[in-house]
Amino acid sequence: MLGKIHLLEGDLDKAIEIYKKAVEFSPENTELLTTLGLLYLQLGIYQKAFEHLGNALTYDPTNYKAILAAGSMMQTHGDFDVALTKYRIVACAVPESPPLWNNIGMCFFGKKKYVAAISCLKRANYLAPFDWKILYNLGLVHLTLQQYASAFHFLSAAISFQPKVGELYMLLAVALTNLDDTENARRAYAEAVRLDKCNPLVNLNYAVLLYNQGEERGALAQYQEMEKKVNLLKDSSSLEFDPEMVEMAQKLGAALQVGEALVWTKPVKDPKSKQRTTSTSKAASFQQPLGSNQALGQAMSSAAAYRKLPSGVGGTSQLTKPPSLPLEPEPTVEAQPTEASAQIREK
């Protein structure tokens, strides 16, 4: 109970210390082991998360929360088929679990089976209509399919439940741009920039929109903000950037005559999130428009049972960075991305 109180206060470090002591006293308590594994998962400490979830499954092989979390971790690292095998076991125990169907849907999304992804995500949405991460994922899949009106519908619904996530406004702006509603797209980008202080993609997309509207000074300002965020990310983590994002930034840099050599050294896929881009430009020169904005989103997954853990367990209810694949929706969240992600930030 003390650990839950720390979680409700948002103090994950103290909560983890309490749960570690609890596991020392009760090393075979699967509930404690699963909760501790989910907390490590939320912090991105995958080795310890896998260790505690594995111990929980050793004592109780049918513990569906631990199985769902383990599948979410596999999904985060791109092992979609293995994750689906785990989810089949969970489906026998809790066939109406929203996090389960959310994660299955994003597995299909990762395998590029978009119709199956939408079918599973809509089932998850039916079971949990107020879960913003499921709505986020639905918007992301529809953006990938270039079904912009449907994407707008789901992203607007997600924003109504979670108005503090900048990436939602960015994806909404991408949908609005493709629906030829430039004025509202700019408003959405402005809100995304205000809310999101660490995702360089927000500034990149905004800069592309401004450049295509002929506002080179504003585009340059957003481009410079993007470079600052990239430098901060490079200094604070080993994060690698999506190659399409790097390519678009280089084209925009050339168009703005600030040089093509960016702060990126090696364009590689970001391993922490299943990111997708829709409608990137085919060519970039100073005279030609750059094309529609990139819709680079992060699939979100859920790691454990829906609304079974206190807020923050197994997911990013308070997002301090873009949601990533394996995390869980709010109150105990259902990830990214992997929630996830998404984030996705799978939950």
From TrEMBL:
<dbReference type="GO" id="GO:0061512">
    <property type="term" value="P:protein localization to cilium"/>
</dbReference>
<feature type="region of interest" description="Disordered">
    <location>
        <begin position="309"/>
        <end position="347"/>
    </location>
</feature>
<protein>
    <submittedName>
        <fullName>Bardet-Biedl syndrome 4 protein isoform X4</fullName>
    </submittedName>
</protein>
<feature type="compositionally biased region" description="Polar residues">
    <location>
        <begin position="276"/>
        <end position="290"/>
    </location>
</feature>
<dbReference type="Pfam" id="PF13414">
    <property type="entry name" value="TPR_11"/>
</dbReference>
<feature type="repeat" description="TPR">
    <location>
        <begin position="132"/>
        <end position="165"/>
    </location>
</feature>
<feature type="repeat" description="TPR">
    <location>
        <begin position="1"/>
        <end position="29"/>
    </location>
</feature>
<dbReference type="InterPro" id="IPR011990">
    <property type="entry name" value="TPR-like_helical_dom_sf"/>
</dbReference>
<feature type="region of interest" description="Disordered">
    <location>
        <begin position="267"/>
        <end position="290"/>
    </location>
</feature>
<keyword id="KW-0802">TPR repeat</keyword>
<dbReference type="InterPro" id="IPR019734">
    <property type="entry name" value="TPR_rpt"/>
</dbReference>
<dbReference type="GO" id="GO:0036064">
    <property type="term" value="C:ciliary basal body"/>
</dbReference>
<dbReference type="GO" id="GO:0060271">
    <property type="term" value="P:cilium assembly"/>
</dbReference>
<comment type="similarity">
    <text>Belongs to the BBS4 family.</text>
</comment>
<feature type="repeat" description="TPR">
    <location>
        <begin position="30"/>
        <end position="63"/>
    </location>
</feature>
<dbReference type="Pfam" id="PF13181">
    <property type="entry name" value="TPR_8"/>
</dbReference>
<keyword id="KW-0677">Repeat</keyword>
